[in-house]
Write a structure and sequence with these properties.
The structure holds two protein chains of two kinds. By secondary structure, chain A is mainly β. Chain A is built from no helices and eleven strands. The mean pLDDT of chain A is about 90. The chains are: A mainly beta, B mainly beta.
């Protein structure tokens, strides 16, 4: 089955700095890579996703890059703000009509210091 | 976006009792729903895939007789923790896929179970 590794487990940055979280996956058949933000005690919220037919996707301060050959993908947050503080999870799956079973990384606790 | 609702959000029960958690897709139909378990400061671990009208598919190590899943309609899946014990205390989250929105997974609010 799929195995997703995520690093670092904790990340502390100053407000305004950039934050980068990296994930690797094991199943070369995986073709869908979402990133979720989870605040304490709340549900995960999708913040950005990327499919294997593109190498990069950007949405305002958030960007994701994908290297299919190396089987790794990264989340980049620029101009971080205190409200970006949360736990971020990467995930990987094979996206098909039969369902979308996600395998999650271990999570990264991001702390943005004002 | 689509809405997935879970109920209850908090439940405290005595050891040995059973607890049912509901997961509803409010504005879309979901033939497949997923149940996860999350321990404090840990990732979401998939427990089982709930399939409408058929048996759930359980992940390795998850006891199907302890965690009963029923997906009787296209908008409702239930997880029943039977004979709960303190080690079952956890945050349980469901998700459902809205194919109309491109297949994005939407998560329920989660249900925090505390077994005394």
């Amino acid at each position: 089955g799929e195995n997703v590794e995520q690093h670092p487990s904790t990340l502390s940055v100053q407000e305004g700095d950039s934050a980068v979280i990296k994930c690797t996956y094991s199943d070369s058949a995986s073709n869908y890579f979402p990133w979720y933000k989870q605040e304490l005690g709340k549900r995960p919220q999708l913040i950005i996703d990327i499919r294997s037919n593109v190498g990069e996707k950007k949405d305002q301060r958030i960007a994701v890059t994908l290297n299919k050959t190396a089987k790794h993908f990264s989340l980049h947050i620029t101009e971080t703000q205190p409200e970006d503080s949360a736990v971020y999870f990467c995930a990987a799956s094979t996206f098909n009509n039969a369902g979308n079973m996600l395998t999650f990384g271990g999570g990264t606790r991001l702390m943005v210091k004002p | 976006g689509a809405v997935v609702s879970q109920h209850p959000s908090w439940v405290i029960c005595k050891s040995g009792t059973s607890v049912k958690i509901e997961c509803r897709s409010l504005d879309f139909q979901a033939t497949t729903m997923f149940w996860y378990r999350q321990f404090p400061k840990q990732s979401l671990m998939l427990m089982a895939t709930s399939n409408e009208g058929s048996k759930a598919t359980y992940e390795q190590g998850v006891e199907k007789d302890k965690f009963l899943i029923n997906h009787a309609s296209l908008t409702l899946s239930t997880l029943t923790v039977t004979s709960a014990h303190p080690e079952d205390s956890s945050f349980y989250i469901c998700s459902a896929r809205d194919q109309a929105s491109g297949g994005e997974l939407f998560f329920g609010e989660g249900s925090r179970l505390t077994v005394l």
